[in-house]
Amino acid sequence: MPHPPVPESRFRDRPLLVFWEMTKACSLACFHCRANAQLQGDADELTTAEGRQLIDELAAWGRPRPILILTGGDCMMRTDLANLARYARERLVPVAIAPSVTPRLTVDALKELRDAGVSSASLSMDGSSGATHDGVRGIPGHFASTMAAIDRLKACGFTVQINTTVMPANLHELADIAAILHEHEVDVWEVFFLITTGRGSDIVSTTPAENEDVCHFLVDASRYGFTVRTVEAPFFRRVARDRRLGRPTSTGSLYDELHGRLEHLLGPASAPVRAPSAATRDGKGIIFVSSKGDVYPSGFLPLPLGNVRSASLASLYRDHDLLRAIRDASFEGPCGTCELSDHCGGSRSRAFATFDNALASDPGCVLVGSGSTDFSPTMPS
Which of 111, 289, 291, 333 is buried most deeply by CB count within 10 Å? Predict the structure, then answer.
């Protein structure tokens, strides 16, 4: 097999997205929570002044500046959220928010954030009804609150993104979720493929064959008026590319079920596919800052790289050996020899969660298979 192409340099010097977990505080108790959120924030969370310093670092990158995603826990639990958003606007750093749906998400709070320059917000929806969504979120009536919050965000002028984590509990509801997003004119559907970390460690993941079927379904769903992106499923880019090029593909009964249900609910699709293909992955185009300032390749890859209190975020991103290896697509096994090793590269978080090695091949990809550790290499420190 020929050696994979030389990795592109687009994200070598700067990330596209910087996620700042502003606090671990959150009033929800979602059973798949990455952050292991808690009712109260930690005493040593980054202060307002330290948050401004982080924003200054992003501003110093120059154009195009990374997009700062303010998340948690629940970012609405930070009393300085709007002040920090205003400061980011002054420093020309674009900001998006990822709040929890709680009574804090009021019209007044949203208007204040819009006035502060925030134009994009993401909410989570993990089922097509309260029976599933409320069970995941741990609060009765939360599905209805989420639907109302979507409409509230739209009314306040936000670009709205819905995040859905794919898991056995909602796998067969994805077409119904897509129909809800279409009905409420949601702008982006970001579909997370479960990583067994945080409180999600005890949940059974979907199989590679199911992942493949879901990716094919998501290409179909992107033709109904909203953009579809995936998290921890970069093999979605391979599926979208193969479909675009008319290459032979293989799908199973799950795809047939979801595709049929989608057409039943929304009719045949007529719009073009809306599936962006930026070749990001954990540590390449993406970086995560915890509530205490610890830096990770992503929120799902718990390998600390340093701390913004004592190191430059830019230097950690550019110079850390692990991130260099990730950006160079220095993987072994199927991910290392795949022709899409750079464009896809597999989920580094899933590789680590499965093999305790961030450079192993992604067992969630149907081209890799599952259950083998023969391709787990030695990872740089």
Answer: 289
For the chain, list the domains and their CATH numbers.
17-266 (3.20.20.70), 281-355 (no CATH)
**pLDDT above 50 for 1:** no
**Distance, CA of 58 to CA of 36 (rounded, Å):** 27
If pLDDT is split at 50, 70 and 90, which confidence band does 378 have?
very low
Global pTM reads 0.91
Distance between CA atoms of residues 120 and 154, nearest Å: 10
Neighbours of 236 (CB within 10 A): 25
Q: Which two tokens stand for residue 299?
A: 């929120």
246: phi > 0 → left, psi -120 to 50 → alpha, else beta; which?
left
Scored b (16 or more CB within 10 A) or e, 139-149 reads beebbebbbeb
pLDDT for position 190: 97
Evaluate if residue 109 carries a pLDDT over 50: yes
